[in-house]
Design brief:
The protein is of the alpha+beta class. About 15% of the residues are buried. The N and C termini lie far apart (about 85 Å).
């Protein structure tokens, strides 16, 4: 019996490469989605399911509108057309998990056409930590500005108080009337109290200047 032998080495290599690609996508650290033109989710990797708290079956019953609260049908259609024109772009938005929790994300969308069908391949990164760091930086910059303002106010106020205390001291010594001396002495005491407030402002300004940018504790 004669037979026909085929070398299937290349086919085996191709199948192995395909399995490796699928495995890599399934275990990618960030969320990966395949989405159809109608917005229906066609595939979501393990990271995407963990981020949102859905099973694969649940994910495949959803559309992009279900997980992105910023999209309406018209907005999705507009984005699809924009993506077809540009091919790929990155933007920031929000995702909504199964438990209702919203979290900020960075999305890189890629338009692909395969076997006559159109898809969006999306890579989604949870940027909660990045947003928190940005907010801390903004708060640190605000506090730095407050420190600079406090330093300026303290400097100006100190100059005014120096004049008041100097003149009050001279007038107390020159005043013959006891009541006048008492009142001038009260002015001098009030100025000294103000000087202590200036010292506190200056101390606050120094602490702000010595604190690293972004640290707000």
């Amino acid at each position: 019996i004669e037979g026909v032998w085929f070398d299937i080495t290349e086919r085996k290599q191709a199948e192995e490469a395909l399995r490796l690609t699928q495995f890599s996508v399934d275990h990618e650290a960030h969320a990966v989605y395949w989405v159809g033109e109608d917005g229906r989710i066609l595939y979501a990797n393990e990271a995407a399911r963990q981020d949102l708290g859905y099973s694969m079956d649940e994910m495949l019953s959803l559309t992009i509108l279900d997980i992105n609260p910023d999209y309406s049908p018209d907005q999705w259609a507009a984005q699809w057309n924009r993506l077809k024109e540009k091919g790929s772009y990155t933007f920031e938005g929000r995702n909504t998990a199964k438990d209702g929790r919203d979290f900020p994300v960075e999305v890189t969308s890629n338009y692909l056409e395969f076997n006559g069908k159109e898809y969006v391949l999306g890579f989604v990164r949870d940027i909660t930590d990045r947003r928190e760091m940005q907010e801390k930086l903004r708060q640190g910059q605000k506090m730095e500005a407050v420190g600079q303002l406090a330093s300026g106010v303290a400097h100006d106020f100190n100059n005014i108080l120096t004049v008041i205390m100097g003149n009050a001291s001279l007038l107390v010594e020159a005043a013959a009337d006891p009541e006048t001396r008492r009142r001038l002495s009260n002015v001098e005491k009030a100025a000294l109290s103000g000087a202590k407030t200036v010292e506190r402002l200056q101390d606050f300004a120094r602490r702000r200047a010595d604190r690293p940018m972004g640290r707000i504790d």
